[in-house]
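hey all, quick one before standup. I had two proteins in the batch that finished overnight and I want to keep them in one place so we stop losing track of which output belongs to which input. First protein below, input sequence then C-alpha cells straight from the run.
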Amino acid sequence: MKRTFPLMLVLLIAIAVLLVVNLLIGSVSIPVSGVCSVLAGDDSNIIWSNIIWKSRLPQALTAIAAGAGLAVSGLQMQTVFRNPLAGPSVLGISNGSALGVAFVVLLSGKLGGVALSRLGYLGDAAMSVAAIVGALAVMLLIIWVSQKVKGNVTLLIIGVMIGYLANAIIGVLKFLSPEEDVKAFVVWGLGSFSRVSGNEMLLFITLMCLLIPLSFLLVKPMNLLLLGDRYASNLGLNIRRARLLVITCSGVLVAIVTAYCGPIMFIGLAVPHLARAIFRTSDHRILMPATALCGAVLALVCNFIARMPGFEGALPVNSVTALVGAPVIAAVLFGRRKDDIGE
C-alpha cells in the first residue's frame, strides 16, 4: 500500500507528459510556445490552431478515454471468468460491433447503389450507430444466456462461438460486396483515434467519464468473485447478479469505444496484467484505477507512434498497440517472475 500513491502519481504525470508530447510532435512540428499560445486562445496562426484543436487534442483525449475504458473492461472480464486470456472481445461483443458495421457498410453499396464511405459525416454517424446496435444486440444475447447457464466456462465458450458466427457472416458479406465497400470496412476494422472530433469527441468523453467511474462501484463484488463462487456466495454475494452487472458494464464500455474508434486490440487483454505486475496486488480497489491509468498511458504512446514524423497520415492503431505493448508487458511479467523465484 505504501507504494500505491507514488505509482499512481507517476502514472498521472506520465499521462500529462504524453499528452503534451502528442500535441507537440507530428508530421508538422509545433514548438512548445506555439502550443501554449494556441491553447491560450491565440488564433493568429490558423494552421497550428487547426492542427491542435481539430486533430491532435481530440486524438489525445480520445486515446486517454478509450485506453482507460478498454483496460477496465479487460480487467472486469478477466475477473469474472478468472481467465488471464479473457479480454473485451472474449464474449463476441466486439464482433457484434463489427457485424453491425458490416451490415451497414457492405450492404449499402449492394442494395442502395451508393457506398457509405462516400457519404462523409452521415456515413460515419451511420457506422457509429451500427456498431453500438451490433454490440448491444450481442450483449443482450450474452445476458440472456448468462441467466440460463451456471458455469463461467460454458458462457465463455458460447461467447467465443458467437464471435465465430459473426465473423462468418462478415466473411459472406465481404464476398458479396463491392470492392470499395470492403475497403471502407477493412479501414474501419484497423482502429483509429482520429475518427472522433468536435461534438462527437465531447459526447464520447462524457460517456466514458460517466461509465468508468460507475464501473468502480463494482469493486467489492469483483473482489469477492476472486475468492470463488462458493465462498463469495457464503459471504452473501448474489453470483448471477454480480456476474450480470460486471458483464453489462464491460460490454457497454467496449460497445462505446468500438463505435467511435473501431475495434482496438491488445489494450484490454494486456494492460490488466501490466497493472498487476506494477502494483503487485489483486485488490480491485487499487487495480481498477491503476488499470485505467495504465491503459491511458499505453494508448497515448501508441497514438504518438502512429503519428510520428515520417509516416504519411497516421498508421492504424492496431498496427502499433501490439508492437509497442507486447515487449513492455513481456518484460514486466518476466521481471516479476524473476522476483518471485528470487523470493
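OK second protein, same deal, sequence then C-alpha cells:
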Amino acid sequence: MFDFELRKENKKSEARLGEITTDHGKIETPIFMPVGTQATVKAMSSRELKEIGSQIILGNTYHLYLRPGDELIAKAGGLHRFMNWDRPILTDSGGFQVFSLANLREIEEEGVYFQSHLDGSKHFISPEKSMQIQQNLGSDIVMAFDECPPYPAEKEYVENSLNRTLRWAERCKKEMESAEGQALFGIIQVGVYPELRQQSVEETTKLDFPGYSIGGLSVGEPKEKMYKMLEHTTPLMPKDKPRYLMGVGTPEDLIEGIYHGIDMFDCVMPTRIARHGQIFTHVG
C-alpha cells in the first residue's frame, strides 16, 4: 500500500503539505529522514527517534549489503524487525556510495564492479541486484539504481550518465514488478545542466513511478547552483507524487528546498555533528 495526498499548496511559492501512506504508517510532509546507515541511526535508539517525532528513517543499501548482509537481514524478518523500528523505512540504491569509490569501481552497462572499502573484496551490483537487495531489506520505499555523476563534469559525460540512468530505471522497474508492499522511486539526475535536467524529468516521469527523487545535487556544487536547479526542476515534476531531495540536511537548505516544493530530505549531517558536540541554532 502506497499513496500520496497533496493537502495544501502555498500560493507564493512551490511549498506544499502532503501525506504519504505506507504499510508501516503515514508520513506527513515535508519531512526530514534521519539516516540509519548500518541499521541504526548512530547514537540514537528507536525509542529516542520516536520521542523526537521521526516518522521515517533511511537505510543504506551498500553498507547493509556488505555488513551484515541483506540475506541475513531477510532471515531476521527484514530491516524493520532487525533494527526494532515499526515505522516506514526508505532505502537508497547504493548507487551514490558505489560511485563515490572513484578508484575502486568500474562502470559498465550491465552494472558496477567495485571493491569493498572494508576489506578490498570484489563485488558487482546491477540495477536488478540493487532491487533484490532492497527486497531482502523489506523497506517501504525503494530507490532506483542510478549513476551519480561528479561535480564538475563535462556535459557529454553527464548526458551519457543520464541515458544510462534511464536505461537502468527501466530495468529496476521490471525487476520490482512482483514486489509487494514496496514503492519504487525514480531518480532525476544530471548535475547542473538545466536542459538535461528537463530531459531527465520528462523521460523519468514517463515510467510513472510512485515518487521521484532529485539526485546529483549537494555533491560539491555551489549552493546558488543547487538552489537554481531546484527552482528549475520541481515545477516540471508531477504534483501528485512525492518529491525527494537526496543528501540535503542543513537548516537553510531544508527551508530553501521546502520553498521550492520538496517533500522529503535526508542527510547524515545532523547526527554527525551532534556526535561531535555541536548543534544547529538560529544564529548558526
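Flagging for whoever picks this up: The two ends are 41 Å apart (CA to CA). The mean pLDDT is 95.
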